[in-house]
Amino acid sequence: MRALEFVFAVGWAAFWLYWLVAAFSMKRGRVPWSRELRIRAVIAVVVILLVRFGAFRGHRLNTDPWRAGIGLVLFALGLGFAIWARMHIGRNWGTPMTQKDEPELVKSGPYHLVRHPIYSGILVAGVGTAVALGWVWLTAVLLAGVYFLYSATVEERYLTEQFPDDYPVYKRSTKMLMPFRLSQRLMIDRMAEFVPPDFDVPLGLETSEFVLEPLGPEHNELDYDAWTSSMEHIAATPGYPDGSWPRAMTRDENRADLQRHADDFRTRKGFTYTVLDPAGRDVIGCVYIYPLTDSDYDARALSWVRKSHAHLDTPLWRAVSEWLESDWPFATFEYAHRA
Questions:
Q1: Residue 32's closest CA among 158, 162, 160?
Q2: pLDDT 10s digits, 294-309
Q3: φ and ψ at 277, to 5 degrees?
Q4: What 3-state DSSP class applies to 200?
Q5: Cβ contact 292:300 at 8 Å
């Protein structure tokens, strides 16, 4: 097992050496040293107390080859994820709690999965080290987790100040360190209980500017013309950050998609409404209400309007938001904010 210790020692050493070299290319910034020193002092005191009371004595090195193998896999995945994040963020990287002079908000790559993927990767690698070598290493992981959690909270407060419109939306759509939530209920249970069995699902919403009614295959022609004529406009609409839709589709594929939404409506798995012009009954947009299974929100709403009716995007968002609050059973819901 001495060879295993050597592998981990070399791995960590190479990782931190890369980190040191890469630091020379980062943008200029500053660190609020009062906060930095405060958390480091607390961790230092904890370490001293642990050493004083013998927390690191009498621990044997792991001899189980299965644990060693699992630990190596976690170690490699963790460091790989952290390096990917470091390379992806480029010169925007900084030491914990750094405040950049010219900050940029990076939301792609690993930052689409979690908001602090470097911290996540290092913690996973630390867990892998503990699994492979000995559980005493979990103490270091726990202390690092406290430091990273504190740093992430400080950094997010700063980023919210720098990006007051974009960062809250990004924050609601991602997790801080884990890309999933450890839920007390299975996903299938949440899907089945999206709305209570005795809830009467609204069949529409009418205002002087637009009318909502359940979407179905009968809307195919008008719906297809609406979104295919406004793809760039829809892609820039709040709530569509990942670029997965709109995308090129045939009319038959669109009809099948509308049928899927109609089936979801019938089985109460999700509710999609076409948005119609009250005068000509032309399709001018769409509203989607579906469960958000990996979030604390009860539901997620998305909406879009065609480019020719862009002025209705905010009125539609406002009307649907009020409708969800007054006529639906959701305590909380996510719906990308409009200015």
A1: 158
A2: 677 889 999 999 999 9
A3: -75, 125
A4: coil
A5: yes
Strand partners, 271: 289
Q: Which two tokens stand for residue 242?
A: 């990942």
Residue 272, strand partner residues: 288
Q: Residue 271 — φ and ψ, nearest 5°?
A: -135, 120
Residues of the chain with confidence (pLDDT) below 50: 182-191
Q: Based on the domain organization, do 267 and 226 belong to the same domain?
A: yes
Residue 286: phi and psi, rounded to 5, are -155, 150
Separation of alpha carbons 131 and 292, rounded Å? 33
What's residue 323's pLDDT? 97
Within this chain, do residues 138 and 235 fall inside the same structural domain, yes or no? no
Q: What is the Cα–Cα distance from 179 to 67, expressed in whole angstroms?
A: 24
For residue 285, the surrounding DSSP H or E stretch is strand 283-290
Kind of pairing between the strands at 205-206 and 283-290: unpaired
**One domain for residues 215 and 260:** yes
The predicted structure's pLDDT at residue 189:
46
Count up the domains in the chain and report the number.
2
Q: Is 309 in the same domain as 282? A: yes
Q: Which two tokens stand for residue 291?
A: 């469960």
178 falls within a domain: no
Domain that holds residue 265: 187-335
**What would the pLDDT profile of 124-158 be if each residue is shown by its tens digit?**
999 999 999 888 888 889 988 888 888 888 888 88
Strands 283-290 and 299-305: what pairing?
antiparallel
